[in-house]
Amino acid sequence: MSISCIAIDDDPHSLENLIAYMEKLPELELVQTFTEPLQALAEISMANPVDIIFIDVEMPALSGIELAGLLRQKAKHLIFTTAHPRYALDAFRVEADAYLLKPYSILNFTKTINNLFPTGKTDHQTLSIFNDHYFYIPLHNENDELVRVNFEDLIAVEDHKHNINFITTELSISSAKINFAKMINMLRSHPGFIQISTDTIISKKHIKSVLGNQILLASGVLYTIEDSHKLLFTEFATNNSLKDS
Asked: Could you tell me which CATH number the domain at 3-125 has?
């Protein structure tokens, strides 16, 4: 099954390069291209949704960030293509699935597509985000810095009303929930993590000990298992306990 795509870039040369890369992946079907963001907004708004929209960031009249916010529901996946890494934080805010920094290679392009659609399948792969083994968290400081977090170092995630707290072996970081809503849903079904309360998901590999309803994790992090999640955790603990022969 083909993967339908739309490409939006006001630079004809960049658009030609993107099209050339897409032609090397036969499963990609280029539905339409645009060099004018306002025209793209008008036509895509009235069209059927597609699998991927590629959007450049710096464009006249309407930036790619603004356009993405208006068209997000028209694509399963949104991929930014830009020469400026400073827009990565804005990409988080509009729930972009990938960020290709120009000039990107065919290898980077192919890896991005394969992460979203392994073996070319158009079914959404809920765990594809874990293929890179890391992610970035915006710090929201004056420099809009990004901190890299490796999944193997992630101890726990606390899902609060508006914020998400990431507890790692090195530090604890808080970020806006809207940036990581998809990731939270992925973690809930990932085999390496388990939910122990309404707002807490922990890494199984970082469990140090269990005493009653208390779980001690790496770096001395301590949580209580809620009654609503006790059955699930008990099943996990039983399946991973040494049994008498």
From this structure: 3.40.50.2300
Strand partners, 3: 28
Q: Are strands 28-34 and 3-8 parallel, antiparallel or unpaired?
A: parallel
Q: In a structure prediction context, what are the per-residue pLDDT tens digits for the chain, which is 245 residues long?
A: 689 999 999 999 999 999 999 998 889 999 999 999 999 999 999 999 999 999 998 888 888 888 988 998 899 999 988 887 666 666 666 677 888 888 888 888 988 888 888 764 554 443 344 545 777 777 666 665 677 788 889 999 999 888 889 999 998 988 877 566 767 777 887 888 999 999 999 999 999 999 989 999 999 999 999 999 999 898 888 887 765 55
Q: What distance in Å separates the CA atoms of residue 167 and residue 219, rounded to the nearest whole number?
A: 10
User: 131-239 sits in which CATH class?
Assistant: mainly beta
Intervals of CATH 2.40.50.1020 along the chain: 131-239
Asked if 28 contacts 75 with a C-beta cutoff of 8 angstroms, the reply is no
Task: Give, in degrees to the nearest 5, the angle at Cα 100 between 84 and 131.
Answer: 135
pTM of model > 0.85 = no
Helices (H), 105-220: 106-116, 177-189
| CA dist 142 → 58, 65, 94, 129, 174 (Å) | 22, 20, 20, 28, 16
